[in-house]
Amino acid sequence: MSLRSEIVRLALRTFIKRCDWRSVTVEQNRRFATACERLVPDPPASTRTLGVNAGGVMADLITTPDSEEDRHIVFLHGGAYIIGSPSLYRHLTWRIAAASRARVVAVDYRLAPEHPFPAALDDAFTAYNWILDDGADPARIVVMGDSAGGGLVFSLMLKLRDEGCRLPAAAVALSPWTDLALTGASLKLNGGADPMRRTDHPPLFVNDYLAGADPRTPYASPLYGDPAGLPPTLIQVGSDEVLRDDAVRMAERMRTAGCEVELEIWPRMPHVWHAFVPFVPEARQAIEHIGAFVRQRTGHTPYQC
Predict the structure, then answer these.
(1) What are phi and psi of 269, to 5 degrees?
(2) Which residues belong to the active site?
(3) Does pTM top 0.90 for this prediction?
(4) SS3 for 75?
(5) How far is CA 263 from CA 142, 168, 191, 204, 209, in A?
(6) Superfamily of segment(s) 3-297
(7) How many CA atoms lie within 13 A of 289 on its CB side?
(8) Residue 67 — very low, low, confident or very high, per pLDDT cuts 50/70/90?
């Protein structure tokens, strides 16, 4: 593990984990996220970001000089379903676009509690089908997301399969939140080791999103769904995360159902360490792995770093 990663861990433990999030309102969380947006580095001048209406759902379309016109990634951001936006991820999505040689559609799905479950899923479903309706080949589409968005990746694939829609070629989930019933052993076991999240953090956001829905509903908690027939999937998670077992158990369920899944458990990495890519070398390495996976599953052209 790099020295920079250890510094980031220390900073997260000092400034994020120690915060008493129980007293922070949704509006305060959103103001914090907006403030963070102003600190996010802009993509290179050669990157193009275009706001698009994806069938009634707003999204950012991110392309780089390396992006192939017919390769697409649907990106679903994290934020516990209550915060987050494509703008907050602009330093990450362009790198994913470049590494994957793809066009990234970062979906600005509706947020809870104003728009509880299944609003986020419905918006992801709409945006995905908008890409298909625009002529995209599903064999050249990958769905990807982090944290809550990582869970949404699996929920989306379940819904696509159940609705008889054409599934994407592959999926990528980064530190996914797949169990809103909060039954993973790591939620407690890693409460001290996780440099960013505490055991009591995930329960704070469940009710805002579910609004009374059963936390074991597969479209909300894909861990409780049947993943049979889902496409090849790459899952990356940090070894010390409180949500580690959401990733591990999802991978186990997929393997049991006969799905092809690659589970990468990165030692001592914080929750969605990819977001620290300007500072953390392991973030760049993880993105390179993602790019290779996407290119392999969608065909064509090697990526040159």
Answers:
(1) -80, 140
(2) 147, 241, 271
(3) yes
(4) strand
(5) 17, 19, 22, 27, 27
(6) Alpha/Beta hydrolase fold, catalytic domain (3.40.50.1820)
(7) 20
(8) very high
